[in-house]
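Notes to self after the call with IL:
- keep both proteins in one doc
- input above output, always
- annotate only the second one for now

Protein 1:
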Amino acid sequence: MNDHNILQNALTIPGLEQVYDQLATAIDAVGPERTELFLVKLALMNANALADPAVFQSHIDAALKDI
C-alpha cells in the first residue's frame, strides 16, 4: 500500500490537534505507571479498527522515523 492510500482519509490540522489533546488528557489521567499499557491497548484497538496489518505496519514504520 502506498502513502497516498494511507493518507487519503487523513485528519485536518484541527482534527489532529483535537486528537493530540484527547491523547494527552488520557495519558495524564492514567499516570506514568500505566501509560505504556494504555498506549499498547489503544494501538491494538486502532489496529483492529484499521483491519489491515500492512497499514498498521506502515504506521509503525513512520512512527519509528527520527526517534
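Protein 2 (the one to annotate):
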Amino acid sequence: MKTVLIIDDDLEVQQLIKTYLEREGFGVYCTTRSSEGLEIINEKKLDLIILDIFLPDGNGLEVCKKIRSTSKIPITLISAKGDESDKVLGLGLGADDFITKPFSINELVARVKAQIRRNEFIEDLKKENRKHNDSIVAGPIVINIESRTAFCREKKILLTAKEFDLLTFMAKNKDRVFSKDFLYESIWGYESSGDSRTVTVHIRKIREKIEKNPKKPQIIVNVWGVGYKFTVSGIL
C-alpha cells in the first residue's frame, strides 16, 4: 500500500483529501502541525507528502527545505493564494509540484498518483542501472546513473532528484531541442499545461551548478521560441 502524509491545518481540506486518497487505496497520515509532520517523516515509510504553505507552527516552505535536506520523498505544496513567487520559491527549494486552493480534488489525486508512478520509475531505473553501471559523459559533465551522482569539471555537483533527472535526460539527448512542455511531461510524468514554468525554475537551478556564468549559459542554452538544448560544442 502506498502511503501519503498530509500536513495541513485546514481540517476540512485535510479530511477531503484523506477520504479521496483512501478510496484509491492509499494509506494516509494526517497532521496540522509541521513539528508532528517531521516526526512522522522520520518514523514512517512514505511515498509522498502533501504540504500546506501556511501552518500554525511554521512556514511550509521552510518545512519543505528541511525535508529535502534529508529526503527525496516527492512533495506537493498546496497554498490558499496563487502567489507565483511562492510557487517559484517552493519548486526551487525542492518541491515536486504546487497546487493552489481551491483545487479539483480529482486533479490532486491524479497528480499524487503521477508523482508516485514517476518515483517508482526512477527506482526501477536505478535497479536496472546497477546491472549495467551506465555513465554519461558529455563535455565537462559526467553522470553516473547507477549512483545518481553528477560531476562538472571533475567537481561533484549536488542535485535534487528532479534536477538530476532533467540534466540526465538532456545530456542523453544532447543537441536536440525540447520545449518546456515536453520536458515537463517527460520528467514529471504527466501533462499539465500552464505548469511548464517548473522546468524554467529547475533549468535555472541546474545552470547555477554547471555553468561558468549562469547568466550566459553555454551548456543548457535557450532556443528562442522553442525551448532548451543541451550542447557541448566548443565547451572546455
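Annotation: The longest helix spans residues 105-132. The chain has two domains: 3-118, 133-230.
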